[in-house]
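Record type: monomer structure entry
Structure origin: computed from sequence
Chain ID: A
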Amino acid sequence: MEQLRDRGELERLGKKPGRGNLVTASGDIGNVSQKVPTDYIGFPVSADEIPGHSHKMREASVSDYAHESAFVVIEAIAATALRVATDRSFRESLRA
């Protein structure tokens, strides 16, 4: 299993990032990945595992749990983007 390059921001926010849940849905992200290294971050919308593209997913997506999860991810991405913009050694480590 590939190790996450920088999990620091999510860990700082009290989350345990990981890989392993294969997502077979298609998306426009595939077009981007043809040009630049790309990944996506999924986040839980419920404490319970629920199927995607379902009524349960739709209902859970408007919950406080889902919104709190989204804001954690937003904060982590923003902090990482700032680090990429301001920390040359970190930025260069991403090219390795």
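Annotation 1: The helical segments are 8-12, 29-33, 55-60, 64-86, 88-93.
Annotation 2: The CA atoms of residues 33 and 47 lie 30 Å apart.
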